[in-house]
Amino acid sequence: MPDQLLIVDDDPYLLENLKRLLQREGYGVRTATSGEEALEHVATEPCDLMILDLGLPGVDGLSTCRRIRGKHNFPVIMLTARSDAMDKVIGLEVGADDYLTKPFEPIELLARVRAHLRRSKDYQKTDDSGESNITVGDLVVDFEKRDVFLSGKPAELTTREFELVAHLARSAGKVVPRESLFERVWGYDMAFNSNSLEVYVYRIRKKIEDDPNAPRYMKTVRGFGYSLSS
Q: How does the average pLDDT of the chain come out, rounded?
């Protein structure tokens, strides 16, 4: 069965063109023109990846993404016609995995769809379940449960957040370059700027640190990357 994609946009011309583009690549494609319709789709039919417009009427893209993230972990690529970086940061904060600013090249969208689907399938594999847990101070990175535990309490990380922590944990005590995080966690050289990655890091810190502004575990090495250490 081909991967099932859901495109959500209120522009009928763009919707139809994206549908044709992705169907030619062999994907199963459904479409929705509102957040409400998108939520109905994912509640009743399988979805492997969503392409979601930020500026939807009614329930907008941010609210739709937030509600989806409460129940589902499939990748969400957010589309925005706005150049305001804050819109992109907010999109990441509510759980989007990636974003593209309109207008964009079809080949760029296809590359990101392929990368996110590939990473999503990697997440679903059980290969990591045989990997030993990694302990850093009071933190335990549990590969079978795909979560981090702090003094026995689950942090309830999202899939993307766990992958970031897990990659850092495998090199605990060492500094991991940003480029390595992009390649390992997103599967390609992202167009994300440093602020976007910092959004993910801050979200993780809010879940695992006593004080996210003075982290004990997840530390920034300015101009280079991050490290996980006690």
A: 86
